[in-house]
Write a structure and sequence with these properties.
The structure holds two protein chains of two kinds. Chain A is mostly helical. Helix content of chain A is 71%, strand content 0%. The longest helix of chain A is centred in the last third of the chain and has 31 residues. The radius of gyration of chain A is 18 Å and the shape is globular. The chains are: A mainly alpha, B mainly alpha. Chains A and B meet through helix 1, helix 2, helix 3, helix 4 and helix 5 of A and helix 1, helix 2, helix 3, helix 4 and helix 5 of B.
Chain lengths: 143, 141
């Protein structure tokens, strides 16, 4: 049953990305291009997504999820090197290509070989990340 | 273009509704990088079916919709070096930071998570700077 819900969630997520134009890399790069022909669409997408989700977070208070025992506990509000460095690297790749993980998968069927290559490279990056993380952590300990 | 903004808002509402359903019913955060990454590196082995089902929906629904609309375009660059470098950076970065636009952006900011807000500030800042340098200075993208 959880998988059926997950499939529907994925389908809505994918349709939302397509409808909003976020599978079009030029719209994402247009948002990041503040010195060029700036395209504010992404702000509307973010706003439209954050509103129902903010309502959902309010509903969670004092309740339990329908098909699970508990809601995810908030992570410790710690701002480590991994968060800052990781987000910076991600932003660089996002700016270069105009793709982030969700839209990369959502556009796989019509994105051609370029889209496939991006997703394969992203998968390799995800496999490398844990090794890089433990290296960074060791360095921090040594300092 | 205001039409794009309205489509953006409507599409965003769909994305937010999807994330809300995943949270309220399955008790999970709809973060694309975490869901994909957990399948790839094996850390999400115990709930692989839920992850695979979400990715299947994410892939199939826009595929059918694009087909019905007579095709869709990503307008991705045809520079292979840029595509591979960007893919690697997105993969490494989102896993190091434990989240991307959906996890830190949509799910994090909506619960006023400090980590989500800081992550979003850094990836938008780095993305903006990258576009300035690689588009306007170097002319690569």
């Amino acid at each position: 049953m959880r998988s059926v819900v997950a499939f529907i969630v994925g389908a809505l997520f994918g349709l939302g990305l397509l409808v909003s134009g976020m599978t079009d890399t030029t719209k994402v790069q247009g948002w990041l291009d503040i010195f060029g022909d700036w395209d504010p669409t992404l702000a509307f997408v973010m706003g439209g997504a954050i509103i129902p989700m903010a309502v959902a977070w309010r509903i969670t208070v004092g309740r339990k999820p329908v098909l699970a025992s508990a809601f995810p506990t908030p992570p410790e509000p710690k701002l480590g090197r991994n968060l800052v460095l990781g987000s910076t690297l991600f932003g660089m790749g996002w700016g270069l290509s105009g793709l982030c993980p969700g839209p990369a998968v959502a556009s796989l069927s019509f994105g051609g070989w370029g889209g496939v290559t991006f997703v394969v490279s992203m998968g390799i990056g995800m496999l490398i990340a844990p090794a890089l993380r433990s290296r960074l952590d060791r360095k921090t300990l040594a300092v | 273009m205001p039409t794009d903004w309205i489509m953006g808002l409507a599409g965003g509402a769909l994305i937010g509704t999807a994330a809300a359903i995943f949270l309220l019913i399955n008790g999970r955060i709809m973060g694309a990088s975490g869901i994909i990454g957990g399948l790839i590196d094996g850390s999400g082995r115990h709930d692989w079916m839920e992850r695979a089902a979400l990715i299947a929906g994410l892939l199939i629904a826009p595929a059918l919709a694009a087909l019905a609309m007579g095709g869709a375009q990503t307008q991705l660059t045809d520079n292979w070096i840029v595509i591979i470098a960007a893919g690697l950076l997105v993969g490494v970065g989102t896993r190091l930071a434990n989240g991307c636009t959906s996890g830190h952006g949509v799910c994090g900011i909506s619960r006023l998570s400090l980590r989500g807000i800081v992550a979003t500030a850094f990836y938008i800042g780095a993305g903006g700077l990258t576009v300035v340098v690689f588009k306007h200075v170097l002319g690569v993208i």
